[in-house]
Specification:
This protein is α/β, with parallel strands linked by helices and about 475 residues long. It has 2 domains: about 5-150, Cobalamin-binding domain (Rossmann fold); about 170-460, pyruvate-formate lyase- activating enzyme (Alpha-Beta Horseshoe), CATH 3.80.30.20. The chain is about 40% helix and about 15% strand. It has helices spanning about 20-30, 50-60, 75-80, 95-100, 120-130, 175-180, 200-210, 220-230, 250-260, 280-285, 300-310, 315-325, 345-355, 375-380, 410-425, 430-440, 440-450, 455-460, and strands at about 5-10, 40-45, 65, 90, 110-115, 140-145, 145-150, 185, 190, 215, 235-240, 265-270, 290-295, 330-335, 360-365. Strands 2-1-3-4-5-6-7 form a 7-stranded mixed sheet, sandwiched between helices. Strands 8-11-12-13-14-15 form a 6-stranded parallel sheet. A two-stranded antiparallel ribbon has the order 9-10. It is globular, with a radius of gyration of 22 Å. The model has no long low-confidence stretch (mean pLDDT about 95).
Length: about 475
């Protein structure tokens, strides 16, 4: 069986990552079970139909499988429609998990996967190879003879250690590491998030399958992969891509004890303010932690509580960031603008909260309503958003608002987005303020997408970049 996996990373804020954890894991499971003829078709600039036709002609796949988010699905659908009949097509990822009804919109799409796709894809490949019935495979909605067969969804994979290490050969991993001058290896150590934020797909994904949503790889399994990666690739640091890193205290203890001795490279990770303790932060710093990323999202307590269901006060946010600084960690804050019920005045609360924290780096995104999330339904109910309206032709994820808010125009949202970093840093670091203004200009983002030297400059200006 020849398998062609597809990934589009088009019009993404600050460019393509050139890798994807889910596809890498699916490929690893297939190869472990003897299906080694796996290729990748990757689109980072545009959905080039000529390139796609060339890939299909050259690879002659039996199965084409795409990963997709909500923003990428229009591009994925366009490519799937070009696949010749006789080749089985399937799409998975957060979009099909949150909104499997999307199969109705793409006649050429044979199936969508709901939830984790490793074993559903393996069963599908085995069924197609042997000529057996594939229409009743758990976790798949299958389109056949004008009907959609909606199968039961299998439970979450309970033991993540049973999965092989991610297939880094699927992508050009060294190129992905070297791009933009970042020299980062991205690694996933957990699956799931215990929180229920209204803007995030995690809540819907956690309900898609039975069993425990939050699961951990053992320290032994994590360290085994890291040791292997250190031997195979050249990289300066590791970015742990977990929603919240090292939530399990026992695993964290063993990881920290071994990491400095066996890997000894700096790492970046994400934290959650409610879960941070001084001992935890000190231990992660001692193990090699360089920077912790905190999701502030909004500095307005009312927006956080009533719109986002993030029930922490500003004081509860500031305290862990100070603990992290005292531990010697650099700080990055993750922020959003253009939220439902937000105004320019409420957005300024986000600026002021960041000024109080004085992070090393800030990240700003424009809110996007994702299908399957609570805020998506809320925006439709309030008529802030038309789900049937096509995306603007030049739409870039999280860099342009799709909402029509009564007290926060798209023009004002865009202005707040572009001036955010400048406004945060101006009182205490004019150099960083100017750098942020350049980064968040349209030309700055293009330069970052296209060059490595600009990232190198930013790393010198922002010590925590």
């Amino acid at each position: 069986m020849k398998i062609l996996l597809g990934l589009t990373e088009l019009n993404q804020k600050f460019g393509a990552l050139c890798s994807q954890h889910g596809l890498s894991s699916i490929s690893a499971v297939l190869k472990k079970n003897g299906y080694t003829d796996i290729s990748l078709s990757h689109f980072s600039k545009e959905a080039e139909l000529d390139k796609w036709q060339d890939d299909l002609a050259r690879m002659k796949p039996d199965i084409v499988g795409f990963y997709s988010t909500a923003e990428q699905f229009p591009f994925v659908a366009r490519l799937i429609e070009q696949v010749p009949k006789g080749i089985f097509t399937i799409c998975g990822g957060p979009h099909t998990t949150c909104y499997p009804e999307c199969i109705d919109t793409v006649p050429r799409l044979d199936a969508v996967c709901i939830g984790e796709g490793e074993y559903a894809m393996l069963e599908l490949v085995e069924a197609l190879k042997s000529g057996m019935d594939y229409t009743h495979i758990k976790s798949l909605w299958v389109q056949k003879d004008g009907n959609i067969i909606k199968n039961q969804v299998r439970p979450f994979i309970e033991n993540l250690d049973e999965l092989p290490y991610a297939d880094r050969e699927l992508f050009d991993t060294q190129k992905a590491i070297d791009q933009y001058g970042m020299s980062q290896m991205r690694v996933l150590t957990t699956r799931g998030c215990p929180y229920q934020c209204t803007y995030c797909a995690n809540r819907r994904i956690s309900q898609a399958q039975s069993g425990h949503y939050v699961r951990y790889r053992s320290a032994k399994h994590i360290m085994g992969e890291l040791i292997e990666l250190k031997k195979k690739f050249n990289f300066k640091e590791i970015f742990f891509d977990d929603d919240i890193f090292m939530m399990n205290k026992d695993i964290r203890g063993e990881f920290c004890d071994r990491y400095l001795k066996e890997i000894d490279k700096p790492f970046v990770f994400c934290g959650r303010v409610e879960m941070c303790e001084k001992e935890m932060l000190v231990k992660l710093k001692q193990a090699g932690g360089r920077r912790i990323d905190f999701g502030l999202e909004s500095g307005n307590e009312d927006i956080r509580k009533t719109v986002m269901k993030r029930h922490m006060t500003n004081k509860q946010i500031v305290s862990p960031t100070r603990m992290a600084k005292e531990a010697g960690l650099q700080i990055k804050t993750l922020n959003m603008v253009g939220l439902p019920e937000e105004t320019v005045e409420k957005h300024w609360d986000t600026v002021l909260l960041n000024r109080e924290i004085q992070p090393d780096v800030v990240s700003m995104s424009i809110f996007c309503p994702y299908p399957g999330t609570e805020l998506y339904d809320y925006c439709i109910k309030k008529k802030y958003f038309d789900p049937d309206a096509p995306l603007p032709k030049s739409y870039i994820s999280r860099r342009e608002s799709l909402l029509n808010l009564p007290n926060f125009s798209r023009k004002d949202i865009s202005k707040c987005f572009r001036w955010f970093g400048f406004r945060v840093f101006l009182p205490y670091s004019k150099l960083r303020a100017i750098a942020c203004l350049v980064i968040y200009s349209r030309y700055g983002e293009l330069a970052i997408d296209a060059t490595t030297w600009m990232r190198s400059v930013l790393q010198k200006v922002f010590t925590g970049f």
